[in-house]
Amino acid sequence: MKTLVPLEYNKYYHIYNRGINSCALFRKHENYEYFLKLYEHHIDPIAETFAWCLMRNHFHFIVRIKNTTENIFLNPILPSQAFSNLFNAYTKAYNKSQNRHGALFERPFKRKEINTIDYFLDSVVYVHNNPIHHNLCKHPATYLWSSYKTILSAKKQN
What we know:
By secondary structure, the chain is of the alpha+beta class. Helices cover 36% and strands 18% of the residues.
């Protein structure tokens, strides 16, 4: 079994995972919306998110794990535990709504450290082009469940 390196503070990561046996994680709009609401609750306190994309059976996030001093909630939860809490909370709600039981996500969730600006930029492009790669759209701007349009509309800060 491969040993996972823990998520470290102030490092950038490509976080991704899929449904167990590639099963659907999201069946309707409400599923996507609820997952994002849980993501905001569990992950925003411990990570800065630069890009994301939710697909029917998998997801991708580009994040930087915040330093403990940046965490306004002073959350003592380890970053990997915060992700685990997200997946567990979503699984419970999804299982209840689908009248199913058991694991929903593959374990452990995948992570790749991003340690160069080129790798960071390539990862953001990869995440936003994932719906095209899976033949769900022809341009990332037409896919609903990604940060692509948010990044395009971001105003410059003075």
